[in-house]
Design goal:
85% helix; single chain; 7 helices; mainly alpha; globular
């Protein structure tokens, strides 16, 4: 018997079960809709620890962190929800128009919406790493990270949006597994993003200091 292969099989089986459990908790705690921000922050917080090898008691830690981040994460979620609703209404208004101004307005709003989607994909990740930061700082850093690491942010956006859509049409029975799997895959990309972002941020701060001298 190949004990190494056997060991790897059980290791990845247990890992898969942990990932699915975290994703299932996200689904259950997101059902009231208003709690999506807290759920997303908590899932990213636990997944970030999990992929870096930090021991996680999934059930205990999930609900503990959920309570801690609930207020701030919910405010951020509601802000984004209002922004998305306003953008959607404006897009519908301009999209149904036929003038040149309507076309330009729709193009500008579509671009702005794309940028906000990129930022939205990052904002709860930033909050999971900086739970005590101010709202303005969290949102600003989410924009900065998504623009600084644009290609990686694009990959995360494709995974976050593309996988559920693909599962819905091809394998709908696997939809419940998607939140955990998507978050796990995102966290295979995020550490490199943070590393790249910190290097560029340090460089920018250094140049600013040199100019101010």
């Amino acid at each position: 018997m190949n004990t190494t292969a056997d060991s790897l099989f059980w290791k990845w089986t247990l890992r898969f079960m942990d990932i699915i459990l975290m994703g299932t908790l996200w689904l259950l705690t997101s059902l009231p809709i208003i709690t999506i921000g807290a759920s997303s922050t908590t899932l990213n917080m636990l997944m970030g620890r999990y992929v870096t090898g930090i021991k996680v008691n999934i059930l205990k830690d999930y609900f503990h962190e959920f309570k801690k981040c609930f207020k701030k994460a919910t405010i951020i979620w509601l802000i984004h929800l209002v922004v998305f609703l306003l953008l959607a209404l404006d897009l519908i208004y301009y999209w149904t128009g036929s003038s040149t101004f309507d076309v330009l307005g729709a193009a500008v709003l579509a671009t702005l919406s794309t940028l906000i989607v990129f930022e939205f994909n990052m904002v709860f990740i930033i909050l999971s790493r900086k739970p005590h930061a101010k709202l303005k700082e969290i949102i600003s850093e989410a924009f900065d990270l998504s623009m600084t690491c644009f290609l990686q942010a694009l990959c995360i956006a494709i995974l976050t949006i593309g996988l559920p859509i693909s599962a819905f049409f091809l394998l709908p029975e696997f939809l419940v597994m998607m939140p955990g799997i998507i978050c796990y895959l995102n966290w295979q990309i995020l550490p490199k993003m943070f590393e790249k972002y910190m290097v560029k941020k340090t460089d920018r701060e250094y140049h600013k200091k040199q100019i101010s001298k």
